[in-house]
UniProtKB/TrEMBL annotation:
MF GO annotations: G protein-coupled receptor activity
Name by which UniProt lists this protein: G-protein coupled receptors family 1 profile domain-containing protein
Family indicated by similarity: Belongs to the G-protein coupled receptor 1 family.
Subcellular location: Cell membrane
Membrane topology designation: Multi-pass membrane protein
InterPro entries xref list: GPCR_Rhodpsn (IPR000276), GPCR_Rhodpsn_7TM (IPR017452), TAAR (IPR050569)
Any Pfam family hit: 7tm_1
Domain (G-protein coupled receptors family 1 profile): residue spans on this chain: 19-252
Keyword Membrane: yes
Transmembrane segments: 6-27, 39-58, 78-100, 121-145, 151-175, 196-217, 237-255
Keywords assigned: Cell membrane, G-protein coupled receptor, Membrane, Receptor, Transducer, Transmembrane, Transmembrane helix
Gene3D superfamilies: Rhodopsin 7-helix transmembrane proteins
Lineage: Eukaryota, Metazoa, Cnidaria, Anthozoa, Hexacorallia
């Protein structure tokens, strides 16, 4: 791979690490953000943070620092596990927002704290059981599997099915949200929350579908003889997957009102800290004079 590719690829990796790290910090440090909805946002942010740290940084650590001590197959298994975990956590968040918008009056009954914990746990366990454990056992040469059949299963579960279901669910969410806004001419608090939720899940899913479109195309080419993917396609797939993880925090900052409010407070607090210190020092100097 050319040097420009690796230099360019580091940018979304850093954005994914910084952006998702900031989301994790805000949710964990701000009591107001510890809501049921943000439990799913936190879980997805952790997965996206791991995606940003695993692939390109992992490649550099393996190839240039550890060299022969690094098992490349295990490194790739960990990176793919984090990518699949990001996909499954996005599906979990989409389920939560689908219930909140389609069944708003029954949301607190249907989505309890216990069920939210179970759903986020399942989002991490499915990729581990279906992909990571078999893949890591193969990498450690504990047993062998039919790789072609396994790739078909993994691609279907973590690419084709999520893309299809997320597209259909998001379209229905948008239609229902618009219908509720037309019915409520005064835009009640519930309708405004639905609008904000629709913007968040709609933008995150749209980014996901755009970034994974090339991945789906490359997988389609891999399983059929209609087209032949080349190295440029595979490089684009890797790059766009990291871009997807980097773009999610931007969507939260733009459309998620509680996150935007806390982010504004954090920025304002930091911006006023330095002037206050400078003014304090100037006052001390004037007093001493």
């Amino acid at each position: 791979m050319s040097n420009w590719y690796w230099l360019t690829a580091w940018l979304p990796s850093l954005l994914a690490i910084i952006g998702n790290g900031l989301v994790i910090y805000l949710i964990r440090s701000r009591p107001r953000l510890r809501t049921l909805q943000n439990r799913f946002v936190l879980s997805l942010a952790i997965a996206d943070f791991c995606v940003g740290t695993c692939y390109y940084p992992g490649h550099v650590i393996c190839n240039y620092l550890l060299d022969s001590k690094c098992n490349v197959m295990i490194r790739d298994d960990i990176a793919v596990y984090m990518i699949y975990s990001s996909v499954s956590n996005l599906c979990a968040m989409a389920i939560d927002r689908y219930i909140a918008i389609v069944r708003p009056l029954r949301y607190l009954t249907l989505m309890t704290t216990t069920r939210a914990k179970i759903l986020t746990t399942i989002a991490w366990m499915i990729p581990m059981v279906v992909y990571f454990i078999p893949a890591i056992c193969v990498s450690l040469k504990l047993f062998s599997i039919n790789f072609k059949i396994s790739v078909v299963i993994w691609t279907t579960i973590f690419e084709f099915i999520p893309c299809t279901l997320l597209l259909l669910a998001t379209m229905q969410v948008i239609i229902i949200s618009k219908r509720h806004r037309r019915r409520d001419a005064n835009f009640s608090q519930l309708t405004l929350r639905q609008k904000a939720s629709t913007s968040v899940i709609g933008s995150v899913v749209a980014i996901f579908l755009l970034c994974y479109a090339v991945e789906v195309y490359s997988s389609f080419c891999h399983f059929t003889s209609l087209c032949t993917p080349n190295d440029d396609i595979y490089n684009a797939v890797r790059f766009l997957i990291i871009v997807n993880s980097a773009a999610n925090p931007i969507a939260y900052a733009l459309f998620k009102r509680d996150m935007k409010r806390e982010l504004d407070k954090l920025i304002c607090k930091n911006s006023f800290t330095k002037p206050s210190l400078l003014s304090r020092r100037s006052n001390e100097r004037s007093t001493s004079l």
